Amino acid sequence: MSDGVAPHSTLAAARAWIAQDPDETTRAELQKLVDAAGDDVATVAADDAGGAGEHAAHAARELAARFDGRLEFGTAGLRGELGAGPQRMNRVLVAQAAAGLASFLLARESHPTIVVGFDGRHNSEVFARDTVELMQGAGVDARLMPRRLPTPVLAFAVRRLDASAGVMVTASHNPARDNGYKVYLGGADAGSQIVSPSDGEIQAEILRVAAGSIADLPRSDAWQLVDESVVDEYVSTTAAVASDAARPIPFVYTAMHGVGYETAARVFAAAGFGEPVVVAEQRDPDPDFPTVPFPNPEEEGAMDLSFALAARSGVKLIIANDPDADRLAVGIPDASTTEGWRRLTGNEVGLLLGDRAARLAVAAVADAADADASGPDATPRPIGTLACSLVSSPGLGAIARAAGLDHAETLTGFKWISRAPELAFGFEEALGYLVNPGSIRDKDGISAAVALLDLAAGLDAEGRTIADALDDLAERVGGYASGQISIRVAELADIPRMAGALRAAPPTSIGGVAVVSAEDFLEGVGDYPKGDILRYRLEGDGRVIVRPSGTEPKLKVYIDAASTTGPGAERLAAARELVARLDTGMRELLS
């Protein structure tokens, strides 16, 4: 397509798309491109390269970008930019996905059920209603969540209603122009997200549907709304994550223009934490996310309004959810920063919550042994697994070993973490935490906030802080620090190019620290499936992992370091110093 010519096959595909598209906006958008490209675009481009030809060539390139392939199920189901064509998120693509998923479910069981949720993004409710109509029309018993709600509420509903599957229409923390389609499976999958081979089987059914027109797919309005009692049960179950002695603590909360506030506020009140000081500008759902270019608490500047409000309000903590409330960010006072606050890394929060889960598991065994007067004198080993993605802090393994619990490292994504055997707690460094696996099998930013608030309130009652808890943890299991380099690319081809350069010339040292071993997951590593991941282990307990993002056009580098020398604060300082050296070294390698 470099000459700007739209071949007849692309034009034919675009016209067929227009003919079946029920959305007036995307239909007009695509028709405009087809009209601009035209069948004689090659002649026009040659005759008038600076005028109409240039316009036609641009339209041809845009058509090629939209029709050269299609969005496929990946880390989070479907996710992409809104617009017309199979490489965009739109009503045609969603209808094909819904019909393909329906065929997959009907092949698995005779009377499948599905529950569908949606957030506050552009077209989320439209996509959700299309899904339940098509599911019901195909013979799947479909239920729609009663209103726009957080992703964790939908994940909870899949298990609570014993549904065969669930769909959440959301793009989580992606930019405003995106939307997505996240799929969960019930039954043996217990409400976790799809993994292989199910994702490939669903994709095959979608392609079969896409060979025809969605106008021919049966629809039905006999679907039902999920009863409000399911939302009430999510609130009470999530509030119960807090200890019986939960107490109020002053904190700021932001929903980041998403759907988290209403549900989170109910949970906080039910748990006994009181009413938060709310970032008013970001409280209510707004699909344009006007105060943040990227509605992701990890992004630079995303929590600036929270920091400013916290500084004015005299609170002790900041709690932030992303727009669909499946992620949690935490801010604590820090006099060394300009704002007087800093956001904890996902690994810091993960280790704090992992340590909390470990202590609860140990206490549960001890309580059970005390209650059993006829049992042995020795307290039995606690049961449970602390799990994290392989790019998350190895400190969770140290916590598990100290507590006598199992530890599992999985591929990235909660579709893998949630499947760890006897899971007690799971996390990934990208602000995702699973603290109540008995009721939900995905990350949940609201229940994680309850666990964190419970921890912070307990510390506050003792005159201590989250920062003190981090020092104490380093004293007990070692000081762990982490860093991340995230390189956003304009062309997806840049990602394999950069990774290929590292494969062609593997580094022998990074930041002056010797590489002890290098592992390429494309060649196979342990029991992991082959994947585009590079892992380097370094002298002095350092580790660097390089992989592409599963949801965004980014190459990500994960850096970890540890120290067991000196008191807790010194251990953390030493680990952070090593992370800084490795960060500089990796930037030089990738430049």
Automatic annotation (TrEMBL):
Domain Alpha-D-phosphohexomutase C-terminal: 536-563
Source organism superkingdom: Bacteria
EC number(s) given by UniProt: 5.4.2.8
Matching InterPro entries: A-D-PHexomutase_a/b/a-I, A-D-PHexomutase_a/b/a-I/II/III, A-D-PHexomutase_a/b/a-II, A-D-PHexomutase_a/b/a-III, A-D-PHexomutase_C, A-D-PHexomutase_C_sf, A-D-PHexomutase_CS, Alpha-D-phosphohexomutase_SF
Cofactor(s) the protein requires to work: Mg(2+)
Stated name of the protein: Phosphomannomutase
Protein species of origin: Schumannella luteola
Cross-referenced SUPFAM superfamilies: Phosphoglucomutase, C-terminal domain, Phosphoglucomutase, first 3 domains
GO biological process terms, semicolon-separated: carbohydrate metabolic process; purine ribonucleoside salvage
Keywords: Isomerase, Magnesium, Metal-binding, Phosphoprotein
Molecular-function GO term, any one: magnesium ion binding
Family to which the UniProt record says this protein belongs: Belongs to the phosphohexose mutase family.
Domain Alpha-D-phosphohexomutase alpha/beta/alpha positions: 71-206, 233-330, 385-475
